[in-house]
Amino acid sequence: MGLRGRALLSGVSLAVGAALGAGVTAWRKRDEAANAGVLRIPAVQASTQLALPPSAGLTRFGLPGLSQLKTRESHVLSYDPRLRGPAWVLEHLTPDRLKGSAERKDCEFQEDVSVHHYHRSTNSDYKGSGFDRGHLAAAANHKWSQKAMEDTFMLTNVYPQNPHLNQKAWNNLEKYCRGLTKSNKNVYVCTGPLFLPRREPDGNMYVKYQVIGSNNVAVPTHFFKVVVLEKFSGEIELRSYVMPNHPVDEQTPLDRFLVSIESIERSAGLLFVPNILKNTSNLKAITAGR
After folding, report:
1. Which of 53, 167, 192, 194 has its CA 20 to 30 A from that of 265?
2. Using an 8 Å Cβ cutoff, are 151 and 74 in contact?
C-alpha cells in the first residue's frame, strides 16, 4: 500500500473512532423523565458500524460478569462481587513460608482497587459493626515476605467474623494447619464462607444472613476450611472443617468441626481437588466420627 493509501486508511480509522466515541457518549444518556431506570441506547449510524462475525453477536457489548480470579503474593482467590468477599481463598503452607521477618504491625487493612467500586468493601463498612475483619488466608501463614503478609490484609481476603470466634477457636484451627507442615510434604488450605439454610417457625427453610456497612458486606453464617495434605509417601489426605460464625468454646476439640468434604461442596457450590478422583486408593478423607 502506498503512502497515500496508508494516509487514507488512517483518516478513515480516525473518523470511525471519533464516530464511535460520539456514539458511546450518546449511549450513556438516560431518559429519566420518561422512564426512571431505563437506559435508552440510540442506534449507531450505519456508516460507523463495524462488521462482526456471527459468533460475536451475543458478546458485542461485553459480558455482564466473569469469575474474578485474583493472584496475590501469598494466595489465590475467587472474588464474589455480590457478597463483597471471596468465594474461596487458596494457600500453600510450607515450613519455609512460616519463617521470616514480616511484621503484622506494619500491615494495614486496605480496600482492593482492582474490584469495581460498586462491588468492593471498605474499612468504613466494618466500623462499629461489632465484627472483626477476619482473614481467610491467615497473616501468620506468610512471614516469609512482608509483601505476602500485606496482601492478606486486602479486604478481598476478608469477611465479617465474630470477634470471639476469630480470636479463639478459628485461631486455633489456623495454628493447627501451620503445625501440619511439620509432618507433611505440602499443606494446601482452601478457606471460604458458607451461607447455610435453617428452618424458620413457618416450617420452611431459608438462607438468611446479615449485611454490614453502606456496601452491604455479607456476613457468612459459617466458614469452611479444607486442608489438603500431601504425605511424603505420596498419599493425599483431606481434612474439612466447618465452624459457625458465632462464639465457639476454644476448648472444643477441632475434630468436632470435621465434616464430610461432600457437604461443603454441595453447600458452597465448589469441587475440591477436582484433579484427583476421590475414589482413588491414594486419597484419604478424614471426617467426623472417624
Report:
1. 167
2. yes
